[in-house]
């Protein structure tokens, strides 16, 4: 499995977890904030991976 595919899988799993935590505890809960920050970091990792592979500089 490619790195991008693994990151997409992790993104989806963490997105679902965030949704369920928010539904159960509300937006103000520390668990929701922590999960949101984790999801943000995964999104950043995915974007760095994607743009590294797609936007290679031309020499």
From TrEMBL:
In Swiss-Prot or TrEMBL terms, this protein is called Spo0E family sporulation regulatory protein-aspartic acid phosphatase
Any one GO molecular function term: protein dimerization activity
Q: Which organism does this sequence originate in?
A: Paenibacillus terrae
The record's Pfam families line, in alphabetical order, gives: SpoOE-like
One Gene Ontology term from the biological process aspect of the record: regulation of sporulation
**InterPro entries (UniProt xref):** HLH_DNA-bd_sf (IPR036638), Spo0E-like (IPR018540), Spo0E-like_sf (IPR037208)
